[in-house]
Write a structure and sequence with these properties.
single chain; alpha+beta; nine-stranded mixed β-sheet; six-stranded mixed β-sheet; 9 helices; about 25% helix; globular; FAD-dep_OxRdtase; monooxygenase activity; (2Fe-2S)-binding protein
């Protein structure tokens, strides 16, 4: 939705070997903010983006700038202690104020507005949890309030309110930063896929097309790290997909940003689209590749919308993917303690606007050799005995379960039975395959074995993609990689000669 209203600065295509101070990989909020900050420090920075900048998760967010990250602070206090939990809050609160101050200083027109953030529960279970979360706010000295009702038709039992948070138009904000970065001498290379890194005192980023960029530091700001460096991040995170409707309604939105803690979750905020107010209604999250027919998630959001608003139309709908770490705290900092000049930022859960800014500030400080008070909180090499072990085992048992189930899953239809716009599992030459019939009647057939670690992908009808239930890789209907950790496309199958091709 956000891209409809923004003219983005265009990057160039990398065509020769280059040497720069810093290579930033990833054209979302983290990458662009990091590149902007480092260029302002006087460094020579190149930003690489596999597609077009601001075309991934950043362009599909509900764009809340908030330190309220679902029901988390009571849990953080229990697992990492009051002081570390306070640092987590302060890092995100500082990010909010950094963005607010920059928007005011640079006079960025991006629909920034201060809003209170409401976390509410409607059931007895979440009434108890919201009360505990509110007490955690008080313990951490977070400006807050408590209510037992909201300005909507549905009833709740409790709401913990974090005061003076914000919302904005993310691409209008980041377009300004990208333009400033380019004006100050930075370079952006779009349609440039970073594929590997040669480590050393001067690391070299190698692109899929074989181009090489030497530098002093690399900042990996891709959604899923394109380079793992034996960090095994795919075993320490899982991918979750959620859905958003933009609804035009008769009644005016009452203000505020709202997140329901009950299942399925629902998120509410307003936005301005072509001069008209719309309500962004999000939620219905599930692990990638493991949900029911994804069209049902949109239908469920629509039912919720029409139960609580007088809806006139739904001009937009989209889905987004988020990575969640085993302790729910992002991995930001040195890729490994032994890798002094390679940095990573990933696992933001659903809070990329603040955590992307936290990451940019932290990585900038580390490259500039400045102390940052939040380094230990976000250190990628950390491992908390509880809950890390429990979640690590749970997620990887889930991977094993889906790996086996995928191999045993029987095809659902034959090619002849497919309707236009439908994708499904079929048999090709006695082997499992995936087929999609486009609106013109053309069949696109792929091998359903994920090129990451061999799990079987499932069809996502809502987005017309093949999604891996094990580690969250996503592929277009023709096999092209859309989301990592997979780097290689699905093999395509020619139904005429039944031969596989890359």
């Amino acid at each position: 939705m956000w891209r409809e209203e923004v003219k983005l600065p265009k990057g160039s295509t990398l065509q020769e070997n280059r040497k720069v101070d810093v290579v930033v990989v990833g054209g979302g909020i983290t990458g662009i903010t990091t590149a902007y900050l480092l260029q302002n420090e006087g460094l020579n920075v190149a930003l690489l983006e596999a597609n077009e900048i601001l075309n991934g998760t950043t362009g599909h967010t509900t764009a809340k700038i908030t330190a309220q990250h679902d029901v988390i602070y009571d849990e953080l206090i229990g697992h990492i202690g009051v002081e570390q939990a306070k640092l987590y809050y302060e890092a995100n609160d500082n990010a909010l104020h950094f963005m607010k101050d920059l928007i005011e200083k640079e006079n960025i027109d991006c629909q920034f507005s201060t809003q209170d953030a409401y976390l509410y529960g409607a059931t007895l279970e979440f009434d108890h949890r919201i009360h505990k979360e509110f007490r955690a706010y008080e313990k951490l000295n977070i400006p807050c309030d408590f209510k037992t009702s909201l300005p909507f038709q549905f009833d709740i039992r409790a709401a913990a309110i974090m005061k003076n948070q914000a919302q904005f138009h993310p691409l209008q904000y980041l377009t300004h930063l990208a333009k400033q970065f380019l004006e100050k001498g930075g370079v952006i290379f779009e349609n440039t896929v970073a594929n590997d890194i040669e480590e050393g005192t001067s690391p070299t980023v190698i692109t899929r097309d074989g181009h090489r960029i030497s530098c002093q530091h690399v900042a990996i700001c891709t959604h899923f790290p394109f380079y793992d460096g034996a960090g095994f991040f795919y075993t320490r995170m899982y991918a979750k997909r959620s859905y958003v409707l933009a609804a035009k309604t008769k009644q005016k939105f009452p203000g505020g940003m709202y997140l329901g803690a009950d299942q399925p979750t629902h998120s509410l905020r307003s936005a301005t689209l072509n001069g008209e107010e719309v309500v962004l209604i999000g939620g219905e999250g599930h692990k990638v590749g493991q949900g029911i027919n994804t069209e049902y998630h949109y239908q469920s959001l629509q039912r919720f919308a029409e139960e609580n608003f007088n809806v006139l139309s739904y001009p937009y709908r989209w889905s987004a993917q988020d990575l969640i770490t085993i302790d729910k705290i992002p991995y930001i900092g040195k890729l490994k303690e032994s890798k002094e000049n390679i940095f990573i930022a990933t696992g933001f859960k659903k809070w990329g606007m603040t955590h992307g800014t936290v990451a940019a500030q932290l990585i900038t400080d580390l490259i500039m050799q400045r102390k940052n008070p939040y380094e230990e909180v976000y250190k990628p090499s950390r491992f908390h005995a509880d809950p890390s072990i429990r979640y690590f085992l749970r997620q990887n048992l889930d991977v094993a379960d889906h790996f086996i189930r995928g191999k045993l899953d029987l095809p659902k239809k034959s090619v002849e039975q497919l309707e236009k716009g439908e994708g499904n599992i079929i048999y090709v030459n006695s082997k499992r395959a995936g087929a999609y019939k486009d609106e013109g009647g053309k069949i696109h057939c792929v091998d359903t074995t994920c090129t990451h670690l061999g799990c079987e992908v499932n069809w996502n009808a809502g987005d017309s993609t093949w999604d891996c239930p094990c580690h969250g890789s996503r592929f277009s209907y023709d096999g092209t990689v859309l989301e990592g950790p997979a780097k290689t496309p699905l093999k395509t199958i020619n139904l005429n000669d039944e031969e596989s091709t890359q």
